[in-house]
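So, can you check these tokens?
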Amino acid sequence: MIDAALEATLLELCAIPSPTGEEGPLCDHVEAKLVELLGRACVVRDGHSLVVTPRVREGLPPVVLAGHFDVVRTSHDGPPRVEDDRLYGPGASDMKSGLAVMLHLLDDLQHGRAPRYAPSFVFYEREEGPFLENRLGEVLEHFPALTKSELAICLEPSSNALQLGCMGSLHARVHFHGRTSHSARPWQGENAIHKAAPFLAKLAAREPHDLLLDGMLYREVMSATLAEGGRGRNVIPDRFTLNVNYRFGPGRTPDDAADELAQVVGGDATIEVFDRSPSAAPFRTHPLVHRLEALGLPSVEPKQAWTDVARFATLGVAAVNFGPGTQSQAHQRNEWTDRHALAEGLVLFRRWLFDD
């Protein structure tokens, strides 16, 4: 199955660069299209984000579809294009495929298709950066009606699988301290890198912790991801810093994760927690999630990563991940998305949203 009109929209979106922090031109483009389609009253801009509320009949359950404008910087050997069963372009998978589906659903609504829900569409900026710089949080503050929704769907690339919940994420700098000396006389100093060895050994020996919720298996993991230290190749280092990323499961808070990291570190170093992202429950028993499961999706899976479903969940809104992008291609060189999955994603969303 191929949808030429949907592919043309995706190619158009991919042709407008939108790396994190530079979403303005893409927001301008989408805003102009939607104002022409729906009218100014339905499209509200907040920075380089948009909240779009099409007119539908009263009394329908409110829902949110959310997708981010920004992409990570990746390398590409050519312009956005179609080759065989793949559509190539920056963000083709993550997550301009989801944005393209959102735009076509809005077109459907404007041309008379009757929805079973009252949808709001949120196009937002800075998702790919640190938690505190992600603008979805501010958008939800500025438009509190969104937090009254019965379900939010983040159209992150999931290859049309329904992915429930998400892991929380904590980033911390673990600082080891020593004393410099000449490397010819190391006994005169205290090697900060060597002091990190017991902690690194603990991390290496640490097994994933499995957590089962609503039939979904989440795996908690703690990893060192960056290292920095030393003053020179012939100087015993007096400082050494590890970035530690702890992915913790639904039901636990960033404070819980910070406490556990402190227990693992012990008194061997100082800890600077600088990025906290909450986890989200799977909401598998929610009736609107049941309806999504009944669409005939490829699979229902736990989300073994962090996404913005956590922002909605923190505000009491059930939220899930479900999008047409090819998940394995997110953030890849020469990123692409599967054309058949793209078309099937729009079919599934239409089946979910519309009565006809």
